[in-house]
Amino acid sequence: MSWIREQELSFIERLTGNILKAGPMPKHVAFIMDGNRRFAQKAHVQRQEGHSQGFEKLAETLRWCLNLGIHEVTVYAFSIENFKRSKEEVDGLMELARQKFIRLLAEQENLEKHGVCIRVLGDLTLLPADLQQLIAKAVLATKAHNKCFLNVCFAYTSRHEIANAVKEMAWGVEQGLIKPSDVSEVLLSECLYSSNSPNPDLLIRTSGEVRLSDFLLWQTSYSCLVFQSVLWPEYSFWNLCEAVLQYQLSYRSLQKARDLHREGQALQQMEADRSCVAELLQHRGNGKPVDAQSRQRELLNYTASREERVRCFLNALQSGRIFHPVLWGSG
Known about the structure:
Shape: globular
Strand content: 5-15%
Helix content: 40-55%
Distance between the termini: 25 Å
């Protein structure tokens, strides 16, 4: 089964898609593909077959997303918590992943045609060595593609991701690359596995469960969350359209909340820089007053030096100087 199903929409599907595209469309959609095991039980087939059907539905959904102009998709493929399942099921999922990444390497021409860049986000050190190598080859093979992006969260939980980002910032401070005062919400976001992607506009969970299950907790603070009762292997184009419509109905309030949050972050950073400059000037001038022009000049210099420190630190992370090796999705 191909990673992207070659199938055109019907006339009514194209018409519906065009009507939806007249409104604001999500650029990045995240999926919690839940319900594979319940589908297998419902269809009286093995669990492994349910997971295989789930992958086929992903390939079909990616095609729908491309047709709707959605150029970035993130999927929750395997949680770190899933390692607690039976050995038989975990081994089956690892084997399914091997098959699909081997298939990906075999169909590079199709992926290049669509310009699909595959990123795998998570702590890949938890995976079998041969699967790590396959994933690395697949990511490198599509790294230069930039028309659309598929982020596969594998051996992933959001808490693990955030904890790893905090450890990386602590390492940066210990190494003298950044100062403790440089640590901020914005910097933590840059240290996440998903740092090369914008935050999802829309998050969809299937199967009727109304929880995030430790998926993209940081990134979806200002996303539209849609919970649908359909099991993932039974997901349809119309389910996706319903979710997009819910996003459009929430668009204005979401956009306002995002703008206010960005303004708040900028103000918080400015206040932090001013506080650092005031401390520096007080130490340097032994408490003597400093005129406003000199203070502004020092503030500009300090901001520039902070931005340069952060840039060098992030370059060091991208070069692999991090505590827990993971496969960063660079596109």
